[in-house]
């Protein structure tokens, strides 16, 4: 039978299989060490898939190559031996330890997902078998192997590297993570001894009583002194970030924290500015990422430093020995491959060393050493001479959060995060998904430059013409393989900027709620609220919340059923649609007002030019024209007066703030910052949070699984009803073949179609509840949301205050009720705003992970002998 594979192809494979695979393995290691950290800096699927592919291929290539080398040696041993064959076997044996180095992987990635950490035992077995296979390959060349010394050195380095990865996986597994947080067993006071003495005193008729004395909470003087000016340096940020990572990493495994931890954390975050709090939290999340997905916990120890020195030294010495070795009998190309492997290993270790020296963890280690007999150590002397801390702080400054004026439409008045990509600790953006644009099948415009957009549109046009005829087949394939949700995410997911003002708004809201909260019931109430606090006008201790009239209070209370009488996911979709309806209705009104202002301005200019002619020619209408002019001028004067009044109020608040700080200290200078948030700000914040929360519910179902309920079903039913409604009312371009359209007809948003759709929904008579008309079979909430939007209209100037506060509460509820390991999983995919809020609430003491009541105390036995009140503990 004729072989389907030509002999020429077989010869090429036999000649190049080992060489090609081992060079591929080296290339994959280079890709991983350079680009694996990018996955924490972006949520783009293309980056995630690329790193995932390289991660899987790297392990496969190294394991496969060991087998190829072993099989090749068996073939060489069966053939006639000569000097060339012997030299080739020596080189192959020399190459095999490199594969152990590659299986150990780079420092930047040990696990792709949390589940990989749970498979640490499988990697341990893999370590044993791969070491055995490599040792077998090496022993086959003994005793004639001229490279046995450098091979042995590389073998040691390979075992160290692979062992580091296995231990890193073990330490990052959830069981080990939980065990690492458990302190030494605490038996408590010696109850038996105390009661023996108590009984003996009683039997002797000596008056005695037991008094519980609470233990004093230790005050962190260093922390308080650093935060007096509320201005943290880059080193301080890293130090505080690690400190609270170490304290609160138990959140990932649902541990309970002490009262002292809560008090200390609250004191710090109440003293910080919102931007500094964000810096600390992003560093904290970065440490979570490093601990779970890299070799941080293994390398940054004294043992880790020692083994890293052994590994690097072994490779360097092996390079020197191979360079000095006579190359007689070795193939020239194979010698080149060997040098590539050696220099590649040195380069990879050098990159790892550079990252290690200038890492956040190194900064933490040095600041710790500085606080404990730092100057007395040799390391301290070296650092003092080289001024290394200043150099390190310079490198840390590149990672500092950078804010710049936002260039996106609707957000030009705000500042957005704009840190350079390779300096980021997370994605620094907020994802979004919108139900109405999804139902209208309008794809959000991706953020591209003008040139990129032109190339993109040209490519889409060509794809449309060539492949549109295959749309039916494409639809079938997409549905068959279950890629519809993936295409939805790729098509309808969009990015929004992370606004400084939005973070400040969320921070201050949570800060106000956390003040004076000292009992578990209040904390539980705040964490379980989904909008009821703002709707009921609840006052928490010293927080002042204005509800001026009974009428406004009644209007708010009419909204409570949309929060408390529905499930969380239903409430979220209801408020999402209602927010959109209110947003676009008001946007339309804003454009009308703006158009009227422009027309008035143009009218004044025209009138000023024609007024003299008008007086002469149309004498009878002079009075009417003058009235019109005076009316317009009066309107302009009124607007100018309102603007000046608002400006003077802000200046007055600032002057008052400065005066108070000067005369009454920092503690009295806490002006209510919510006065600086305008209604338009709250409107934009509500829109961002609305789209973001729907994105979490629909496109992050794993993360929201604890609160999602039947959110997917309710969303699909609502979309089905919306599409039918829009089709009947001829609103928007509705395409029959959706998957093909998503692939080849990606358009931009049509604001007119969206506004028309919102108007059509609002024009529907909703006097009767939808459930009373169509029953409960469909889970759609489209017209329930329409009823909610009409209720919100009645709030008038309070509308956006209520909506924005409700969205903050919905976000807070999701943050505290999502599973902790979901937050941990998400830090490797760019991070999420909800994870930042999760940590922020924990630091404000708004969570169920804390002991609210004091639990530490000492028992003191008091007898009626003042001279000998010896405490027994």
From TrEMBL:
Keyword Ligase annotated: no
Keyword field contains Transmembrane: yes
InterPro entries: DUF4220 (IPR025315), DUF594 (IPR007658)
Sequence intervals crossing the membrane: 16-35, 47-69, 120-139, 305-324, 336-358, 378-396
Ranges for domain DUF4220: 52-438
Record's keyword terms, sorted: Membrane, Transmembrane, Transmembrane helix
Source taxon at top rank: Eukaryota
Pfam families per record: DUF4220, DUF594
Protein name (database record): DUF4220 domain-containing protein
Species per Swiss-Prot/TrEMBL record: Quillaja saponaria
